[in-house]
Structures are given as structure tokens and as C-alpha cells.
């Protein structure tokens, strides 16, 4: 099933605080038209802020990052679907 989230937001602290919910869900990070990373968390805002601060993460090799999210209770299952279907640049199949 394709990615459901329609609009993305810049991957910045201000944007995360304004748009990322403190809810369980799955998130995607994109650079231009290329999916870079997918993950899931019980707290989307906290996890995305952690990624933003971790400058060694693969995603930071790419410019103009945007984040997308789906606040859903079945995040681990949805993440597996996305990894198989989209194959983002910075995920391994074991993330």
C-alpha cells in the first residue's frame, strides 16, 4: 500500500515542534523526490527530533529533508510494508 501522508514538512526543529504529533505512528523522510528513511515510534515528535540531532545518520547526506507521518497504532506492520515496497536509501531490511 503506498504512502498515505499527502504533505510533508521541513525537517527542522521549529517544523517538528509545530507539526509532528506526540503519538504513535510511522514516519518517512524524503529529499526531493527520493525516500531516504522510514521509521516508527510511540512518540513521533521525540523520535524525529532525535534524528535531527544525530548528524551521523545517513539521512543527513541528502539536502532539503522533509518529514511525513501517519499517526497509526499499527506502526511496526506499516513500517515493514513501506520498507518492502519503497526501499528507502538509508534503511536496511532489519531496521
Give a short overview.
By secondary structure, this protein is of the alpha+beta class. It has 3 helices and 4 strands.
User: What is the overall shape?
Assistant: globular
Task: Find the count of extended strands (DSSP E, 2+ residues).
Answer: 4
| CATH architectural category | 3-Layer(aba) Sandwich
Instruction: Note the run of SSEs as H and E.
Output: EHEEHEH
Strand content: 15-25%
The number of distinct helices, counting runs of at least 4 residues, comes to 3
Summarize the topology.
Elements (H helix, E strand, L loop, with lengths): L8 E2 L2 H7 L5 E7 L2 E8 L2 H10 L11 E6 L4 H12 L9
Antiparallel strand pairs: 1-4, 2-3, 2-4
Helix pairs in contact: 1-2
Structure commentary:
- The chain has three helices and four strands.
- It is α+β, with helices and mostly antiparallel strands and 95 residues long.
- The protein has a single domain, classed as GIY-YIG endonuclease, CATH 3.40.1440.
- The protein has a four-stranded antiparallel β-sheet, with helices on both faces.
- Strand 2 and strand 3 form a beta hairpin.
- The two termini are 19 Å apart.
- The mean pLDDT is 91.
Describe the structure using short key phrases.
four-stranded antiparallel β-sheet; 3 helices; alpha+beta; GIY-YIG endonuclease; single chain; 95 residues; 4 strands
Amino acid at each position: 500500500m503506498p504512502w498515505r501522508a499527502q504533505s510533508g514538512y521541513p525537517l527542522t526543529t521549529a517544523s517538528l515542534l509545530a507539526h509532528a504529533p506526540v503519538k504513535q505512528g510511522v514516519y518517512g523522510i524524503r529529499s526531493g523526490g527520493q525516500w531516504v528513511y522510514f521509521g516508527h515510534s510511540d512518540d513521533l515528535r521525540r523520535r524525529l527530533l532525535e534524528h535531527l540531532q544525530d548528524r551521523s545518520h545517513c539521512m543527513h547526506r541528502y539536502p532539503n529533508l522533509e518529514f511525513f507521518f501517519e499517526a497509526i497504532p499499527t506502526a511496526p506492520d506499516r513500517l515493514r510494508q513501506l520498507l518492502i515496497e519503497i526501499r528507502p536509501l538509508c534503511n536496511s531490511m532489519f531496521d
